[in-house]
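User: Design a sequence. Structure:
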C-alpha cells in the first residue's frame, strides 16, 4: 500500500468512527507522525492531505524543515522537549503537543516572548502513571494550568496523552475516557489563557477507540508510513 492509499484508508476509518458516535469527520484532525521518515515520504503524506505532521526530535525537525518537508502544512512537536532545545522548536511548530513540566512551559514562554510570539501548546498527561513516560500526573494539572495562565508567551489549547501500550482495546478505552473527563473538568474551570480545544490521543492501533472517547486529534505513524526503520 502506498502512503497515499494509507492516508485515504485512515481518513475513512476516522470518518467511520466519528459518524458512529454522532460527530463530524471534519472535527477530527489527522496528524501524521512522521519521525524517521524522509522528507520525500513526508511530502507524499502532505500530498495525500493530512492536516499536520508530528515530529518528536528537535534535530530531525530542523533537518527535514530545511529540506522543505513541511511546506504548506503545520508541524507539531510531539516528543519530550529538552529545555535547551526549545530554540529549534518554538515558532517552527504551530503546536507543541508535549509540554510536560512547568520547567518546559517556562522555557517555551521565555523563548516565545523574545521572538515576540505566543506559542500554542498542549499539556501532556501521564495518564497511566508510568515511570518510563513523561507527562504531568492528573493530580498536578490544576497547578500547572494555573502556572501557564500567567505566562504571556504560551497559550494552552488542550491536552495530549499516550496511554500504556496495550493490545487490550478495552483497557485503552478506560484511559481515553479518563482523559476526556479531565479535559471536560478543566474546560469548566475556565483558566485564563487556557482554551480546551484539542484532546490529542490515539495512534495507529487505537485511534478509533480514542475517537469514541472524544479525541479530536489523532497522531498516526505506522498506519500511514508503514513500520519505521
Ligand atoms: C510515533 C508517535 C506516534 C505514532 O505512533 P504509531 O503507533 O506509529 O501510529 C504518536 N504519538 C507520538 C508521541 C509518537 O511519538
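Assistant: Done.
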Amino acid at each position: 500500500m502506498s502512503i497515499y492509499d494509507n492516508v485515504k484508508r485512515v481518513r475513512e476509518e476516522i470518518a467511520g468512527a466519528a459518524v458512529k458516535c454522532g460527530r463530524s469527520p471534519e472535527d477530527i484532525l489527522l496528524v501524521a507522525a512522521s519521525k524517521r521518515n524522509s522528507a520525500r515520504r513526508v511530502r507524499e503524506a502532505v500530498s495525500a492531505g493530512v492536516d499536520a505532521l508530528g515530529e518528536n526530535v528537535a534535530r530531525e525537525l530542523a533537518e527535514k524543515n530545511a529540506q522543505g518537508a513541511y511546506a504548506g502544512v503545520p508541524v507539531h512537536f510531539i516528543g519530550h522537549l529538552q529545555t535547551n532545545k526549545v530554540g529549534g522548536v518554538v515558532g517552527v511548530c504551530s503546536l507543541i503537543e508535549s509540554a510536560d513540566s512547568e520547567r518546559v512551559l517556562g522555557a517555551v514562554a521565555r523563548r516565545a516572548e523574545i521572538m515576540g510570539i505566543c506559542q500554542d501548546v498542549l499539556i501532556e498527561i501521564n495518564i497511566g502513571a508510568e515511570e518510563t513516560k513523561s507527562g504531568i500526573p492528573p493530580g498536578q494539572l490544576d497547578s500547572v494550568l494555573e502556572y501557564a495562565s500567567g505566562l504571556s508567551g504560551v497559550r494552552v489549547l488542550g491536552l495530549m496523552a499516550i496511554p500504556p501500550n496495550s493490545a487490550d482495546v478495552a483497557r485503552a478505552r478506560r484511559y481515553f475516557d479518563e482523559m476526556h473527563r479531565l479535559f471536560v473538568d478543566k474546560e469548566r474551570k475556565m483558566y485564563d489563557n487556557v482554551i480546551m480545544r484539542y484532546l490529542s490521543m490515539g495512534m495507529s492501533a487505537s485511534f478509533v477507540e480514542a475517537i469514541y472517547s472524544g479525541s479530536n486529534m489523532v497522531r498516526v505513524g505506522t498506519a500511514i508510513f508503514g513500520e519505521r526503520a
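The chain has one domain: 3-225. The two ends are 17 Å apart (CA to CA).
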